[in-house]
């Protein structure tokens, strides 16, 4: 049986970025003429060998039963499984409590922090929910068949516990500044947590080195992958649906004007900091999610008679030794890969947003954060997969046959979009709107992530923060005009290099999280912490519960 289709190259460009199109043929927007073309070529030539080395190192493959897959996938999934066992399946036992905390039922408005639990959740989700949920799932369905959906769900459920661990630490070791703003994330909990866990020279030195490494990697990705790539692909999609090179966005200077407008929109949001970002994402993320789920439901309901067969195909395909990707192990890896690269559990980015939450108890935000992979992977990615399986388009079937024969997977976004078009012929226009919304939400969230990495490295001051925001907005324009493929691929590599650093820290610090968890749950049981069920005439009506 041919296993070559399971190599990482099959999913190039990397399918791990949740906002990426996960396409085998990304939309190019190279500067075609003049000095810009020369600049782009020079930058690409410099970064190409660097990117090749870094990608080979970070996404290096191991082979199991003849199937090759990136080490980083195993690193993330194994960590999620270990955390799940160590914390006693906390993501299942306390799911209802997590929902209540997200709704603000255990936190008062006067607790330290900047944003509510729901706003923190929305901000973090805006950085993960994106085109990867659409196109990345399309690729996974072609390579892994329906059975990949089952393993994608399993990996998403495991990843919930990783988010619980890292976001609890994000709040516990955050810094609240004199102006009331908050800074947190892996750079803070690695430096402080390691020094606390090992109060000696090793703990301080290791923590500082890990914190600096995480900051540098996250900053680079924020400027390139979380910014320039988004701008580039947004303009590409808009240009594509408006006539391509001969349309209204095909003329000289169109990319520059689009980039300036997009930079202005981003600037208006990020100038206000996390409060401004949160106020946008708490409206934008639910709207995006609802719009997409409704589109999925339209396809599913139009083919309601096919649902039992689709569910059966997903379950049987998960354990079918003749699966498209080469048996049970192959299908499992495809599903795990899609989930791990979609929800970013373990990468260390989400704790930066969650650290700004209003709470006195760090573990409360850990509970809220575990909802993130559930929404991103278990709900949205699964809805995409169901849509592809139920629509059962000829393009999907042909794609699976091509991969089975040793060929390349078709464009991921095309596979998923074709499934929607069976019921919604105008879906490409909806997809364009989705691309813009996903990209803008990702850009503003990663602007904040990058700012916190920047201020950790260069200090927090008005001049430092303004300088960062100016650079960030400038690169929005650059990303729209130039396609710097090697730069963006290098950014992908350094983002997941952060996962190696971050998870090592999580292993060392998980006893601290367990202590926080036990203390909080004991206070809940004793009635010391009460549930806020409503407000009356300026006062709070509360009841005690045993969750």
Automatic annotation (TrEMBL):
Where it sits in the cell: the answer is: Cell membrane
Q: Does the keyword Disulfide bond apply?
A: no
According to Swiss-Prot or TrEMBL, what is its membrane topology?
Answer: Multi-pass membrane protein
* An example Gene Ontology CC term for this record: plasma membrane
Give a GO molecular function annotation for the protein: amino acid:sodium symporter activity
Q: Which domain of life is it from?
A: Bacteria
**TM helices/strands, residue ranges:** 67-90, 209-229, 249-272, 284-304, 310-334, 367-391, 426-449, 470-488, 494-513
Q: What InterPro entries does the annotation carry?
A: Na/Ala_symport
- UniProt keyword list: Cell membrane, Membrane, Symport, Transmembrane, Transmembrane helix, Transport
Output this protein's name: Amino acid carrier protein
Give the source species: Actinoalloteichus hymeniacidonis
Q: What is the lineage of its organism?
A: Bacteria, Bacillati, Actinomycetota, Actinomycetes, Pseudonocardiales
């Amino acid at each position: 049986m041919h296993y070559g289709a399971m190599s990482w190259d099959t999913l190039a460009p990397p399918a791990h970025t949740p906002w990426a199109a996960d396409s085998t043929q990304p939309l190019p927007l190279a500067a075609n003429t003049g000095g810009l073309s020369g600049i782009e070529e020079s930058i690409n030539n410099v970064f190409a060998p660097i990117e090749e080395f870094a990608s080979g190192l970070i996404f290096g493959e191991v082979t199991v039963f003849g199937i090759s897959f990136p080490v980083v996938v195993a690193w993330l999934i194994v960590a999620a499984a270990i955390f799940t066992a160590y914390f006693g399946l906390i993501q299942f036992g306390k799911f209802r409590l997590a929902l209540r905390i997200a709704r603000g039922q255990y936190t008062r408005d006067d607790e330290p922090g900047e944003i509510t639990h729901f706003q923190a959740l929305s901000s973090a989700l805006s950085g993960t929910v994106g085109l990867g949920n659409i196109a990345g799932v399309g690729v996974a369905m072609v390579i892994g068949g329906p059975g990949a959906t089952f393993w994608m769900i399993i990996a998403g459920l495991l990843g919930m516990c990783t988010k619980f661990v890292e976001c609890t630490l994000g709040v516990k070791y955050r810094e609240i500044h004199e102006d009331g703003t908050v800074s947190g994330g892996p750079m803070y909990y690695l430096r402080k947590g390691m020094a606390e866990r090992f109060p000696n020279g090793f703990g301080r030195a290791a923590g500082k080195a890990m914190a600096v490494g995480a900051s540098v990697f996250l900053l680079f990705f924020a400027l390139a992958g979380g910014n320039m790539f988004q701008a580039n692909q947004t303009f590409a999609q808009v240009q594509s649906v408006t006539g391509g090179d001969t349309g209204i966005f095909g003329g000289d200077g169109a990319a520059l004007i689009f980039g300036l407008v997009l930079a202005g929109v981003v600037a208006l949001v990020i100038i206000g900091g996390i409060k401004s970002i949160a106020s946008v994402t708490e409206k934008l993320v639910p709207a995006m999610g609802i719009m997409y789920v409704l589109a999925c439901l339209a396809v599913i309901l139009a083919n309601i008679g096919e649902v039992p067969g689709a569910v059966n195909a997903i379950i049987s395909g998960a354990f079918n030794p003749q699966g498209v990707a080469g048996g049970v192990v192959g299908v499992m890896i495809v599903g795990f890969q899609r989930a791990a690269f979609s929800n970013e559990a373990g990468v260390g980015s989400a704790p930066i947003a969650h650290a700004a939450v209003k709470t006195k108890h760090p573990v409360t935000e850990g509970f809220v954060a575990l909802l993130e992979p559930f929404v991103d992977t278990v709900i949205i990615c699964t809805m995409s997969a169901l849509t592809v399986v139920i629509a059962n388009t000829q393009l999907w079937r042909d794609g699976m046959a091509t991969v089975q024969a040793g060929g390349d997977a078709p464009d991921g976004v095309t596979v998923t979009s074709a499934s929607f078009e069976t019921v919604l012929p105008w879906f490409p226009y909806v997809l364009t709107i989705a691309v813009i919304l996903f990209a803008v939400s990702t850009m503003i969230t990663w602007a904040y992530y990058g700012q916190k990495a920047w201020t950790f490295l260069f200090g927090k001051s008005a001049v430092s923060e303004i300088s960062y925001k100016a650079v960030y907005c400038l690169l929005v324009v650059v990303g729209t005009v130039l396609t710097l493929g090697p730069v963006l691929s290098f950014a992908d590599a350094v983002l997941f290099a952060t996962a190696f650093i971050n998870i090592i820290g999580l292993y060392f610090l998980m006893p601290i999280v367990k202590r926080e968890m036990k203390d909080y749950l004991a206070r809940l049981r004793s009635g010391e912490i009460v549930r806020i069920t409503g407000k009356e005439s300026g006062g709070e009506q509360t009841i005690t519960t045993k969750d």
